[in-house]
Write a structure and sequence with these properties.
Helix content is 24%, strand content 24%. It is of the alpha/beta class. A six-stranded mixed β-sheet has the order 2-3-1-4-5-6, with helices on one face. The structure holds guanosine-5'-diphosphate and magnesium ion.
Length: 170
């Protein structure tokens, strides 16, 4: 049993439209592979990410990531994602760079309310499938969005780096 009183745990809520690549991204980090045939996420699934999956230099740093289903009827309009937002430290908003419509999820009422009700959280905007970028898609990326690819590994850890930096750098 590992007992560590100085462990830093940060809870992250990961949201975005269905099919943008949320589960694929987590799986890429946890298992080091790009899998095409993940089951669709039902409800929400939690994953612990520690220095074994990702070299933080600091062994005490751990993320608890909640991967939310992207099914909007169930999850974004009703009780949905807000129930999982309790005591979060960060919110990752994910979209698919090849489907600009998926940026709209970032301004759904439930998402806006999470940000209003948790004013101290770190909010990270991130567009997936960067391996399929072209000029048209590029123009539609909102300001401040990190482009990533779980396929090519491009910027794979950058969303987590930014969250960690927000809590470790003064
Ligand atoms: N080309 C490409 N496809 C991706 C990438 N990330 C995810 N996908 C594909 O997008 C589809 C949906 O991914 P999934 O993780 O289930 O999306 P989720 O609903 O947001 O969890 C799958 O077919 C993935 O293989 C990526 O970085 N590049
Ligand atoms: Mg999923």
């Amino acid at each position: 049993m590992e007992h560590n009183t100085s462990a830093i745990n940060k809870k992250i809520l990961l949201v975005g439209a269905e099919g943008v690549g949320k589960s694929t991204w987590i799986n890429r980090i946890l298992n080091g592979e790009f899998k095409r045939d993940l089951y669709p996420t039902i409800g929400a699934e939690g994953y612990i990410l520690n220095h074994k999956q990702y070299d933080y230099q600091d062994e005490n740093f751990r993320f608890y990531i909640i991967d939310c289903s992207g099914s909007d009827d169930v999850f974004y309009k009703g009780l949905g994602i807000k129930g999982y937002a309790r005591s979060i430290d960060a919110l990752i908003l994910m979209a698919d760079v090849t489907k600009p419509d998926t940026y709209k999820y970032w301004s759904l009422t439930a998402v806006k309310e999470i940000i209003i009700e948790n004013p101290d959280i770190v909010v990270i905007k991130c567009a997936t499938k960067g391996d399929r970028i072209n000029q048209t898609y590029k123009k539609k990326i909102p300001d401040g969005t990190i482009l990533i690819s779980s396929k090519s590994n491009y910027n794979l850890y950058k969303p987590l780096d930014q969250i960690r930096d927000a809590f470790t750098k003064g």
